[in-house]
Design brief:
Elements lengths: L2 H13 L11 H23 L20 H11 L2 H14 L4 H4 L1 H6 L4 H10 L5 H27 L6 E5 L10 H7 L4 E2 L4 E2 L7 E5 L5 E8 L5 H15 L4 E8 L3 E3 L7 H7 L8 H10 L7 E6 L9 H13 L2 E8 L9 H9 L3 E5 L1 H12 L1
Parallel strand pairs: 5-6, 5-8, 8-9, 9-10
Antiparallel strand pairs: 1-4, 2-3, 6-7
Helix pairs in contact: 2-3, 3-7, 8-10, 8-11, 8-15, 10-11, 12-13
Length: 377
């Protein structure tokens, strides 16, 4: 974009939609413009109507974008703007336009329909909440998390259900009676006239389950703002894996620092309430910490969930990845872990990690469970 075009774009974002400059905006700038109009468009609307109550602008009918609500606006500004700009937008929303229900009014959260969009908005703004609102937010988080657990638990656990071994048994008790084998092997004793099957030899089997040796499963998740959906699904998925006796699960979150959330794996609500979305990214530091947890490399799976945009020099990440791969660790890099599995990531760095032995993909929690079960099985 030329300097003149850049200046026109900045004036468009500052002055509003009636300046005849819309045609010069890129798709990203149009999205940003819509977010700014949602907030600052209240200025003109309030002056014209004289109500001054800070309520949302209602645009008339047409073929434009659907009307935003506050949770969706919060989520989108975190994805479209840098951190300092987001802080300014949130400050103006709260102080200047009084769009404060989601972070100041517990009754609003109590009435809200629990869904993932609202959960993401809560996680992004919980640092602004007072203790009373935070308590209401925690209840909402628990309701949405429970919905996700109900949806995912069977899908994640299914690949790990120990197969029953049907072995012959000399213990002839009713619960061990193998009626299928008994009927099949006694068909020669079928009496056509009496229409009866004579059971010359009954068969029985033991009901034992195949034992799976314990593995380590280390989930390393990027808690930058763009990864919020993957963070939510990582917390829920880790809690489900934590319940499986065959697997020792760890959960690590990182930005430029690393936080070990393993002690909270059992309760994903506590995990999510401790996550701090945003900030920089040091993937190498997080993977170095994960490597320090490994007990038996050949019975360890390390799953890195990130967009692969490394903020630190990549040398450390590449070095520790190579060391783990050479020691026998199973490495999986996920550009997305959610119900949509739609990735947006640095393909160049991901490709370099693939050459070192990491498998890279985007998966749903069910896909991840199947992949882990295949490695263990």
């Amino acid at each position: 974009m030329s300097n003149g075009a850049a200046r026109r774009s900045r004036w468009r974002l500052v002055l509003g939609e009636d300046q005849g400059l819309c045609s010069s905006l890129s798709d990203l700038e149009r999205q940003r413009d819509r977010m700014l109009e949602f907030l600052y468009g209240r200025e003109g609307a309030n002056r014209n109507s004289g109500n001054g109550d800070g309520k949302s602008v209602t645009r008339e009918g047409g073929l434009g974008d659907s009307v935003l609500d506050v949770p969706e606006w919060i989520n989108q500004i975190h994805e479209l703007f840098p951190k300092r700009t987001v802080e300014r937008l949130e400050k103006d929303a709260l102080e200047r336009y009084k769009i404060d229900e989601i972070v100041t009014n517990p009754q609003v959260l109590e009435r809200a329909e629990p869904n993932q969009t609202l959960l993401e908005a809560v996680l992004r703004t919980k640092h602004l909440m007072n203790p009373q609102v935070l308590a209401a937010a925690r209840v909402l988080v628990r309701r949405v998390v429970q919905q996700l657990i109900d949806k995912l638990a069977v899908t994640v656990q299914q690949p790990f259900a120990g197969a029953r071994l049907r072995r012959r048994s000399l213990l002839k008790v009713a619960k061990n009676f193998d009626w299928r084998t008994t009927v099949r092997r006694n068909l020669r004793n079928w009496d056509r006239n009496r229409k009866q099957l004579g059971l010359e030899t009954p068969y029985f089997f033991t009901r034992t389950r195949r034992r799976i040796e314990r593995w380590q499963f280390i989930i390393v998740v990027d808690q930058s703002g763009s990864m919020v959906s993957s963070v939510i699904h990582s917390a829920v998925t880790a809690s489900i894996f934590h319940s499986l006796p065959a697997i020792k699960t760890h959960l690590i979150a990182f930005d430029t620092s690393v936080i070990d959330l393993t002690s909270d794996c059992e309760d994903p609500v506590e995990t999510l309430m401790k996550v701090q979305l945003g900030g920089g990214t040091d993937i190498g530091k997080a993977m170095t910490y994960a490597a320090s947890l490994i007990e038996n490399p050949r019975r360890t799976i390390v799953t890195l969930i990130t967009d692969f945009y490394e903020g630190a020099p990549a040398d450390n990440l590449l070095r520790v990845t190579k060391q783990m791969a050479e020691s026998g660790v199973h490495l999986l890099g996920l550009a997305a872990l959610d119900d949509k599995a739609e990735p947006a990531y640095d393909r160049d760095l991901a490709a370099r990690l693939v050459t070192l032995g990491m498998h890279v993909a985007a998966m749903t929690p069910g896909d991840l469970a199947a992949w882990v079960a295949e490695k263990i099985g």
